[in-house]
Specification:
This protein is of the alpha/beta class and about 350 residues long. It has 7 helices and 27 strands. The longest helix has 16 residues.
């Protein structure tokens, strides 16, 4: 089995951080989102992965080569951002067997064992999550046996609450790419993009049976508020704690937190839901629901619902901020309201 992972997006909802860091490499609980995905895929025995790259491709490729040197990685440039079907179409020359397709927007907890037990009459599996805010997603309408009937994008009526989360196993890869070619030939949707879900609809219309499967966990990291929620979840299930090589003096620690080696905290209060990456120094500050990158310097700040990049320097700041790597922010004064303040 091979895998295809699209990574070409610009991550506009996470700017300014994604001006310099590819969205899949942004960290939650001290680990890039892409690393959570690749660790699971490698554990399945997948050795060959096609990465669809674009924005900051050199950074992505260098990180994969360094962190996963044994992978047989292929990189295909998506020059035109024409949607999910356009992205996956670029992988066709490399796909000659069963394939996993994973969109790297979230941390997933999935039972991949279903792949080994899937009946021979199924052409694919789409993993889905039941949600209440179904209007935000493409939702899967199923037959009585749980197989896919159709996918409806952002419905105004509750035709289904099974959200398509961007994780697929495809056994009949030839029919999938036939469906992608058909999708690309009939014209783009209202947004000007071609959707991979239309290719799955083509498979169903040609008689393929596509199973739907539940996910045990799906934690979005595609925008600031959900990235912070995902950070909290991961801290609570085992990635929290204070490293013995960190120095905490006179500070109140409110779990869950992740304080890595080389961090220095003097006074103030840290937590809940705070990650401080290695080498960061925090003096006389209060941090809640905040992620801070490596080797940052924070002095007399009061932050909540914030993301601070590595090597940033903040002093006298109060409120909610989004501060990119190497930024300097001093003395903004009173608490900010509404949308987080951005610097970078």
């Amino acid at each position: 089995m091979k895998a295809v992972i699209p990574l070409a997006g610009k991550g506009t909802r996470l700017r300014p951080h994604t001006h310099h860091t590819p969205k899949p490499l942004l960290k939650v609980a001290g680990k890039p989102v892409l690393a959570y995905i690749l660790d699971d895929v490698v554990a399945l025995g997948v050795e060959e992965i096609v990465f669809i790259v674009g924005h900051l491709r050199e950074t992505v490729e260098a990180w994969i080569a360094e962190e996963y040197p044994t992978l047989r990685a292929h990189y295909v440039l998506q020059e035109v951002q024409d949607g999910t079907a356009g992205a996956i179409a670029l992988a066709e020359p490399f796909v000659d067997e069963d394939v996993l397709i994973i969109f790297a927007d979230a941390v997933l907890e999935v039972d991949y064992g279903l792949i080994d037990t899937l009946g021979s009459d199924y052409g694919a599996v789409i993993w889905a999550k039941e949600v209440e805010d179904y209007q935000r997603y493409g939702v899967i309408v199923t037959h009585e046996d749980g197989t896919m009937a159709r996918i409806v994008e952002k419905p105004s009526e509750p035709v289904s609450k099974l959200a398509n989360i961007g994780l697929y196993y495809v056994r009949d890869h030839k029919l999938l790419f036939e469906g992608i070619r058909h999708t690309l030939s009939v014209g783009a949707g209202p947004s000007g993009e071609f959707y991979l879900t239309d290719a799955f609809q083509y498979m169903v219309d040609q008689g393929s049976r596509i199973a739907t499967a539940p996910v045990d966990g799906w934690w979005d990291a595609g925008k600031p508020e959900t990235l912070l929620e995902t950070n909290e979840h991961l801290l609570l299930i085992g990635r929290g704690g204070v490293d013995p090589a960190a120095k905490v003096e006179g500070a109140e620690i409110v779990e869950p937190v992740r304080i890595e080696a080389g961090v220095e905290v003097r006074g103030g209060r840290i937590g809940p839901n705070v990650t401080l990456e290695a080498g960061t120094v925090v003096d006389d500050s209060t941090l809640e629901h905040t992620v801070v990158g490596p080797s940052a310097r924070l002095r007399r700040v009061q932050l909540r619902d914030s993301i601070v990049g590595g090597y940033a320097e903040l002093s006298g700041v109060s409120g909610s901020v989004l501060v990119a790597d190497h930024s300097v922010v001093r003395g903004l004064g009173g608490a900010t309201r509404g949308r987080p303040q951005r610097a970078g």
